[in-house]
Design a protein that fits this description.
Belongs to the SCO1/2 family. Keywords: Copper. The chain contains five helices and ten strands. With 190 residues, the protein is of the alpha+beta class. It has one domain: Glutaredoxin. Helix 2 packs across helix 5. The chain is globular, with a radius of gyration of 19 Å.
Length: 190
Amino acid sequence: MIRTNYLIPAFFLLAAACTEDTPPRGEIELNEAFSAEFDLIDMYGEPASDERFEGKPMLIYFGFTSCPDVCPAALGVMTATLDQLGRDAGDVQPLFITVDPERDTAERLRAHLSFDPRILGLTGSEEELKDARNRMRVFAAKVPLKDSAVGYTVDHQSLFFLTDASGQPIVAFNDDMDPAVIAARIKARL
């Protein structure tokens, strides 16, 4: 027979130990299978490889400017996260990497991201962007839209990827996490 008066204190000790290091729902630890290496161009037409941002953690989101709802919401979360970071926001490089190079030119990215000058848009050739997605294990696929003026959409994952200062991806956050929580988790890793 197990005595319950011993189980109650043990439960609380175990619960306290687990919650200290347990990441919040929506945070995913990444391993060495993920790589943030890329060789693209930014929304000003300048070369933008991962080496350009060395020494600064990157907060990366893969999306596209014609996205009707998911990407705008995610960009809102990214901006709110940067706002929550306050002064520390300058220590992180936020990047929006397109999954739709056919439409997302440098000019279009500039117009789309003009609401927040902290976010830098990146584009490139189909092959260059596919290589960047493959290295980060990001799914994206063009989907034809019959009887639509836009012609197609792009199904894609919607995650924020955080790298360390050397450019190694360390964690991903679901796009529906509270910006204050994301900011706190980023600050803990800076």
